[in-house]
Structure prediction request, 320 residues.
Amino acid sequence: MSQANLENLINLLMLLALVMAILVWWATKHGGQRGRIAERTRQAAVVQRNESTLAAEEEDDDSLTTRVLHRLARLGDRLPLFDAKYRAKLRTQMIRSGYRSQSAVSILLAVKFVVGLICAAFTVMLGSRIPVVGGYPAVRGIMMLLVFVVGMILPEYVLAFFASRRRKAMASCLPDSLDLLVICTNAGNSLGVSIRRVSDEMKTICPPLSSEFKLTADELKLSGDSARALQALADRIDLPSIRALISTLTQSMRYGTPITQALRTLSHTERLAHIVSLEEKAAKLAPKMAVPMMIFILPAVMLIAAGPAVIQLMSVFATR
Prediction:
């Protein structure tokens, strides 16, 4: 057997060992007769619900992206590596990132698993080219496991990054939405109508905040439980300013105080906090610009200023 065939056989055995390790881990933790019946029942119910939802969506949209997402969702439903507690945690993160679909968690789990396998496969295939340690199969196997874990963690960090950007965008537009809410309540509109009106006005300015306000207005219209709908808004956005807004509205409705005055005070406070934040960023701009100016701008300025003199000196010494 040639050296290349031996390396390919070792790589294949490593990938098979990774898959077998995952199956053994699942069997000892979740499977067998001693596995938790409630967990398996809940998982079966989730799979059946997601399959019915995906079947209905497939009838409406038959594009390539939709089919790929549906297959990822089915794979995520059947992955035995994640328990109900972890799925609930991911569900909260997905909702705060703006993904409210029933199959969002399943798609994320499938993406985590696929990215981990791809990273592990690349590590196995390219690990033999690493100097010194690449020739040892045991070292490559350990690297494969580590890269598999890192590949499964990476999509969560990407999701957290986009969720953070989304929260920052909503926080920057919150003072404007509070001003609009004050105007709507001053006009005599109810809380639900005011929130829906603000959602319509903020649709082009801040789509994430508009979407959250629209969902809250729908919940207020359908359920009628204002405290529960507002608390759901605070849980979805997870910002201190939003929690302060929800607390102010809840206390105003509980004690019968005017909502307009409370909103006006909160709007003024948020506007001042936003201005202070902008001033802080502006104060930090000068130190941050020092290093890029020294690296990129200063050499160009020196070249332009001293370039003609250097050329003249070179021509003088050349004539001599």
The chain has two domains: 3-163, 168-275. The two ends are 71 Å apart (CA to CA). The first helix runs from residue 3 to 29.
